[in-house]
Design a protein that fits this description.
- The chain is an all-beta fold.
- Helix content is 0%, strand content 48%.
- It contains no helices and 11 strands.
- The chain has strands spanning 4-7, 10-13, 18-24, 33-39, 46-51, 58-60, 68-73, 78-83, 92-99, 112-113, 117-122.
- β4 (33-39) and β5 (46-51) form a beta hairpin.
Length: 123
C-alpha cells in the first residue's frame, strides 16, 4: 500500500508556471506507475499525465502536451508535474495516483490517490 500527498498548488496568473509534487510513503515507490489527474468544478476527473515505473516513458493528455512535464525521482519517492504556460482552463484540483500494474490514462485503473491540491489560474 502507498500513501500519496500532493503539494505545490496555488494561485498563478495566466502564462505563469507551477510545479506540483506528490510524495509517496513506503519503500517500493518504483513499483508503482504514477499519474496526474485533475477535476474542475462541475466536471469529471480527467487525465493529465502519466509516467512509467522507471520514468522512462511518459504520456500526456493533448490539452497539456508541450506545456506540462511529468517526472519522477524514485530515490526521493516523489513524482512531479511541471506546468508552464498555464491557462485559466487549467484551473482544477490536481490529484496524483499510483498503481502497481497499470500505466495509462484511465482513472478507474489506479488504486491509490492523494487528497488533491488546488491550482487556480487567473486571466
Amino acid at each position: 500500500q502507498v500513501q500519496l500527498v500532493e503539494s505545490g498548488g496555488g494561485l498563478v496568473q495566466a502564462g505563469g508556471s507551477l510545479r506540483l509534487s506528490c510524495a509517496a510513503s513506503g519503500r517500493t515507490f518504483s513499483s508503482y506507475a504514477m499519474g496526474w489527474f485533475r477535476q474542475a468544478p462541475g466536471k469529471e476527473r480527467e487525465f493529465v499525465a502519466a509516467v512509467s515505473w522507471s520514468g522512462g516513458s511518459t504520456y500526456y493528455a493533448d490539452s497539456v502536451k508541450g506545456r506540462f512535464t511529468i517526472s519522477r525521482d524514485n530515490a526521493k519517492n516523489t513524482v512531479y508535474l511541471q506546468m508552464n504556460s498555464l491557462k485559466p482552463e487549467d484551473t482544477a484540483v490536481y490529484y496524483c495516483a499510483a498503481d502497481r500494474t497499470y500505466y495509462g490514462s484511465s482513472s478507474s485503473e489506479y488504486d491509490y490517490w492523494g487528497q488533491g491540491t488546488q491550482v487556480t489560474v487567473s486571466s
